[in-house]
Each structure stands twice: as structure tokens, then as C-alpha cells.
Specification:
globular, 2 domains, 4 strands, Arc Repressor Mutant, subunit A, H-NOX domain, alpha+beta
């Protein structure tokens, strides 16, 4: 599944806002640079792009010095109601294993950015979670953790069994010791960090157990509705918009090449150039637009100096950044008003 090809419900961003605000961050900080309003987020009929949600996540990660374990905590709060008709379909499935297969089939209706694969291993069902290589390490860790935590919460909600895991392995750094007990209690095991893969192991005795609210008729109805909803959310975006979304999600210091974008869109560089020409733009223009947007966002953060902004954007020095910014805007870069106008 290519998550870029589907829009999503605002429910996940609402959960992100609640999570961030519970940790002392403001709505304005969490939505900075996303062009989203609270009215949009609270409207269930609104569809958000993946790039908009990723921008909210990026804002959260920038404000948390040690984000290890953060995604797990958030994912454990994704109740079945967050998934709408897919959640009802999971609850109505015959077994937890059937519910997990339903999720794999309709992954675009979740809020996952990871590929999920399954294998049976003796008396265990194992799930692997693989984040996109195009994301930076912090974002990869967060989206993998969130998907893993959400999987645990779904298992708990549909089966009525708490602490359902036999094992959990994560590639990232260990979470702060202050939340180890909380995580172990929720998961049923002590997570193993710095592992080679992101993995959860579930006893087959649990995944094969009949679910208390299983209903064949409701499950079939939900499956049909999920099929329709997936098609509704399949994006019909033009090439420049898709590329803007891709560039917005790349790490600040990363400067993707045309070949990277062509591979992402499963096309050739020649075809991509032709599409840009037909749309009256170019890859260079979109790349410069993206870098300027990221620069403006960082300049609005009172915790960064001009030198730090230049470094985060991958410039070799402040002078190079200043020249690029003047080329983009016609004026020298300056920090937010709260820090005063400081130009190089």
C-alpha cells in the first residue's frame, strides 16, 4: 500500500492534538505550518492528506526532546471508535485473527504509514511493522510505534483481554524508564528495544478465540462499506500536488533528487519531467518551494538561531542559506518577532 494514494479522516489528528495538549503543547504549536483549522479537524466529513497529518506529527516530535516510546503511548489510545466502520467490522469479526486480516486488507482506513506483514510461528501469530525508508529516523520510530500500540489496543478492545502480547521488539532507543511499567502493564510484556525489527507476538490461543460480539451479517456489511470508503478516499491528485506532499514529508536536511521522486511515483525521470512541463512547473521550482516553506516554519520557532536553521535545512553555512533565502523571497532571513529581527 502506498499511503500517499489515500486521504484520511481527521480523527487521528484530533487524537494527536489531545495527546500533545495533555503534554502542555498548544493547538497553534501542533498545527503550525499545516494550514489546518480546528473547524476542519472537528468535521468528520473533511478529508486530510497524509502530508497534513505528518506535519502535525513532525511538530510534536520537534517539541519532545526524547520521543522514544511516544508513539506507543499514543497508539494505545486509538480506540475502536477512531476507525469508524472499520472498527465496527473488526469488532464483528469471527476471531481476532479475522479482525487483523480485515485491517491488513483495508489499511488505508487506519492511520498507519507502515507496511504490516504476518506469519504464524508455532503457537504465535507474529506481525512485522515496516515504516517508509523516506522518513527520518525519529518519524520512522514514531509511526512504527504508533501502529504497534494501536494494534495492541484493538486486540484489547475486540477481545476484552488486557495485556495481550507475548513479546514486542522495537528498533528504536529505549523509552524513558518512567513509562516502562505503564507500557509493560498495557502490553503484557516488557518491550525489547534496539532490536533488528519491529515485531509483536500474539498467542494463537487469543487470535483464534471467538470474539464476544461476532456477527456474520454485520461483518459482511462493514466489509462492503469499507470497500466503498477506500475508493472514496483514493486520491485523484495531480503530479505537482503529489510531489509537494512527498517533499513536505522528507527530513528538513534532505534534498531529494528527481530520481527519488520518479521511483516514488513508479515512473521514469523523463516521464516525470514531461508531466511537470504539462503542468507548467518543474522539479526545481517545487523543491525550492518546499525548502522555503520549511525555512519559514523553522524561522518562526523561537528556539532556533539562524545558524541552526541553516544547519537543519542542510546548508553548508549561514551565508549559503542567506543567499538561497534572498533568492526565494527577495529579503534576508530573520527570526520570529518574539526573538527580534536578526539578519545575517
Amino acid at each position: 500500500m502506498n499511503f500517499w494514494n489515500f486521504t484520511r479522516s481527521p480523527a487521528s489528528v484530533r487524537l494527536l492534538l489531545d495527546f500533545g495538549r495533555s503534554r502542555g503543547f498548544t493547538t497553534a504549536q501542533l498545527l503550525a505550518g499545516t494550514q489546518l483549522t480546528l473547524a476542519q479537524i472537528e468535521n468528520a466529513q473533511v478529508s486530510l492528506s497524509p502530508g497534513q497529518e505528518l506535519a502535525v506529527i513532525a511538530n510534536l516530535l520537534r517539541m519532545v526532546p526524547d520521543c522514544s516510546g511516544l508513539g506507543l503511548q499514543l497508539g494505545l489510545g486509538y480506540q475502536l471508535s477512531a476507525y469508524g466502520v472499520l472498527g465496527l467490522g473488526m469488532m464483528s469479526s469471527a476471531t481476532a485473527f479475522d479482525a487483523l486480516r480485515l485491517v491488513q486488507r483495508f489499511l488505508p482506513l487506519t492511520y498507519s504509514y507502515v507496511a504490516i506483514t504476518h506469519r504464524r510461528d508455532g503457537d504465535l501469530d507474529k506481525l512485522w511493522f515496516e515504516p517508509p525508508a523516506s522518513m527520518d529516523a525519529a518519524m520512522q520510530g514514531f509511526v512504527a510505534e504508533r501502529a504497534m500500540g494501536a494494534t495492541v489496543r484493538v486486540l484489547c478492545d475486540i477481545s476484552g483481554v488486557s495485556a495481550p502480547l507475548t513479546a514486542m521488539q522495537l528498533r528504536g532507543r529505549p523509552a524513558p524508564t518512567s513509562i516502562h511499567g505503564e507500557l509493560a502493564e498495557a502490553l503484557g510484556c516488557v518491550p525489547r528495544w534496539r532490536a533488528a525489527e519491529n515485531l509483536v507476538a500474539i498467542p494463537r490461543a487469543l487470535t483464534q478465540r471467538a470474539l464476544p460480539q461476532a456477527n456474520v451479517t454485520t461483518a459482511a456489511m462493514c466489509e462492503r462499506m469499507c470497500e466503498e470508503l477506500v475508493e472514496q478516499r483514493r486520491t485523484q491528485l495531480d503530479t505537482p500536488t503529489l510531489v509537494r506532499e512527498y517533499l513536505a514529508a522528507t527530513p528538513d536536511a534532505c534534498t531529494p533528487k528527481l530520481a527519488d521522486v520518479a521511483a516514488f511515483l513508479c515512473t521514469s525521470e523523463r516521464s516525470l519531467k514531461r508531466w511537470f512541463h504539462d503542468d507548467g512547473t518543474s522539479f526545481r521550482e517545487l523543491l525550492e518551494e518546499s525548502r522555503r516553506t520549511k525555512a519559514d516554519r523553522l524561522l518562526g520557532n523561537p528556539h532556533h538561531s539562524l545558524t541552526e536553521v541553516a544547519e537543519r535545512l542542510g546548508f553548508s553555512d549561514l551565508s549559503s542559506f542567506s543567499q538561497a533565502y534572498k533568492r526565494w523571497t527577495g529579503q534576508a532571513p530573520s527570526l520570529s518577532p518574539a526573538r527580534g529581527k536578526l539578519s545575517p
